[in-house]
Amino acid sequence: MDSQRNILLIGLALVSFLLFNQWQSYKNPAPVPTQQAQGSTLPAPSFADEHDPAPGHTSAAEKIITVKTDVLTLGINTIGGDVVTADLNEYAIEQDSADPFELLKDSQGHQFIAQSGLVGPQGIDLSSTDRPAYQVSTENLTLQDGQDELRIPMTFTANGINYVKTFVLKRGSYAVDVEYNIDNQSGQNATFGMYAHLRQNVQDKGGSITMPTYNGGAYSTQDTRYKKYSFEDMQDRNLSLNLTDGQGWAAMIQHYFAAAWIPREAPGTNLYTRVIGNLADIGVRMPNQTIGNGQTAELKATLWAGPKLQDQMAATAPNLDLVVDYGWLWFIAKPLHTLLSFIQGIVVNWGLAIICLTFIVRGAMYPLTKAQYTSMAKMRMLQPKLQAMRERIGDDRQRMSQEMMELYKKEKVNPLGGCLPIILQMPIFISLYWALMESVELRHSPFFGWITDLSAQDPYYILPLLMGASMFLIQKMSPTTVTDPMQQKIMTFMPVMFTFFFLWFPSGLVLYWLVSNIVTLIQQTLIYRALEKKGLHSK
């Protein structure tokens, strides 16, 4: 197998990979809910009126209080205590923009909010238009220099029960604790449970064939570490899963960012989805608690609202970092991302880190590359003997196959030696593709010159054109035994096809492929010179 056939294999594998990913995004089947013990399933909170799915915040007492830390700016509605806006202060909505990225929003036509409340016999979140009107001491709070934590208590009293809903934000953290402290002075027992869900307008999946991003729900349970549950899945069937040990979370994810609710200290929590009109909910309903007269209780959940930062997410909840979806090759992609981050910490520039990573990966695979070209050279040396064998044997394929294998054995040649390295390289390329695609660290990160965002396509298509030219040079430098005119045309067209695909790829990925080709040219030159000295290389 020669270089040009290898390039064809890479091309077919790449196109198949892209088409498979796009097909998967449209055909991902809904999972079957876990069977639950009779009577153990809690219903989803029923405060929302299915005939009127509008938010319903029309009270004159409604206020939006603003809470700002170094990384988050939240807007919290005093009606119900819902988080209706979440701005990520360190991430611009667009490159060079002064406006922060708005993850949660409550705008016309695009609602994405984090709701939480109390339901049950003595619940205070009764319907979409009957939510508690909390009292607050101030409407604007900012984390000051030297301050590590903000606590925002919101109070409400009804029927002799005092409720304090407290939001806890910490410096440098995208995890927000939501605590209910309840003091029952009603003269009788009080029973209720906490719910917390994310509500968003039903969206399409987004993405493209070259950048198939996901926009939808996801969850984790004790039985399933990570599972996507798309808007289409939610529309087909409501999800209802029991978190026996209380470990799990429900999330809405998108490219680079995620929001998630994590129950705390609540075995038996129900994880649910539902769709009301054009609004989809995914969340958790914690089990009811009964508080005796004169007693107090605390119910707690954590809201993550921020970028997909794996270390912070893993520290917030088990498996939450898996929303950084590396696909089935995660066991390769995750170490590659870790190595890339380590290199970036040294060289500072993410583009330089990608270049260094390319040299490391290709350097580690040099023995395979050398074996590939050596095998190809030996195969070329055998071509005259193989041609003579074909003329002597004719159309007897069985005899031809037997004598070819005897010849390979005698000459100590592995006919698959040139193909195996390519097969081993493809998982690394695919893994790196996902590692770069899912790395929020590359978002709006510049390289140099005209490459101001490694997560976006090259605005002038210079890198894809250079990549195509490098592929063309590899073809020209690689001797070939292909004589079929159709195969020759395919080989000639391959760099053009690759260039066309890479026009829309993130420039960071194109940079990797370009540098990889340059390394290939260098390695190819060195290996061919060594083979020429051994008399194995001939054009």
UniProtKB/TrEMBL annotation:
CDD domains: 5TM_YidC_Alb3 (cd20070), EcYidC-like_peri (cd19961). GO terms for molecular function: membrane insertase activity. One of its GO terms (biological process) is protein insertion into membrane. It is a multi-pass membrane protein. Its main location: membrane. Residues 30-43 have a biased composition (Polar residues). Residues 65-339 form the Membrane insertase YidC N-terminal domain. The chain crosses the membrane at residues 339-361, 413-436, 490-505. It is found in: Cell inner membrane; Cell membrane. It holds the Pfam family YidC_periplas. It comes from the Bacteria. Keywords: Cell membrane, Chaperone, Membrane, Protein transport, Transmembrane, Transmembrane helix, Transport. Residues 350-529 form the Membrane insertase YidC/Oxa/ALB C-terminal domain. GO terms for cellular component: plasma membrane. Residues 30-58 are annotated as: Disordered. Interacts with the Sec translocase complex via SecD. Specifically interacts with transmembrane segments of nascent integral membrane proteins during membrane integration. Required for the insertion and/or proper folding and/or complex formation of integral membrane proteins into the membrane. Involved in integration of membrane proteins that insert both dependently and independently of the Sec translocase complex, as well as at least some lipoproteins. Aids folding of multispanning membrane proteins. NCBIfam families: PRK01318.1-1, PRK01318.1-3, yidC_nterm, yidC_oxa1_cterm. Belongs to the OXA1/ALB3/YidC family. Type 1 subfamily. This is Membrane protein insertase YidC. It comes from Vibrio qingdaonensis. The lineage of its organism: Bacteria, Pseudomonadati, Pseudomonadota, Gammaproteobacteria, Vibrionales. The gene is yidC.
